Amino acid sequence: MKKLTPSSGTKTIKILPRDYTGSLTLKLRDRSLNKLFEVSSTTTTADGNFTQIEWEHTSPLYLKEGHQYDLSVIDTGDNIVYRDSVFVTSQTIDQDEDVTYDINKDVYVTHDTGDNDFIILED
């Protein structure tokens, strides 16, 4: 699974494609909206066995916070050379430091209630 941020700007992913071709098109399908977005203006660079793909994420912004996408990378012959999942979040995720995605971030506040183990939800 790839992680991207919802902000505008240059997006970069590294893939290990089935076939090494020059021109690639990205197709992102939003799983919750079932809407397909096609990115054809990509820059590809060889990086060892990997292919690095860069593109500009500009208006209208189609990458939404907390959404999951199906990624398909297509070559010029309409062949799928790579598939993956994409998760979009602006949260910092670092598995080495055990910093994981928190679906409830900034949604509720926890209080130290002593020996009782419960959560108080506040608006």
Structure notes:
The structure is a single chain. This protein has strands at about 1-5, 10-15, 25-30, 35-40, 45, 50-55, 70-75, 80-90. The chain is an all-beta fold. It has a single domain, classed as Immunoglobulin-like (Sandwich). A hairpin with a 4-residue loop joins strand 3 and strand 4. The mean pLDDT is about 85.
Pick out its properties:
single chain; 42% strand; 8 strands; 3-stranded antiparallel β-sheet; Immunoglobulin-like; mainly beta; 123 residues
Output the CATH class name.
Mainly Beta
Helix content: under 10%
Give the domain tally: 1
CATH topology: Immunoglobulin-like
Low-confidence stretches: none
Largest sheet: 5 strands, mixed
The overall pLDDT average reads 85
- The topology string of helices and strands comes to EEEEEEEE
Alpha plus pi helix count: 0
Q: Tell me the strand order in the biggest sheet.
A: 1-8-7-3-4
Strand content: 35-45%
Computed structural class: mainly beta
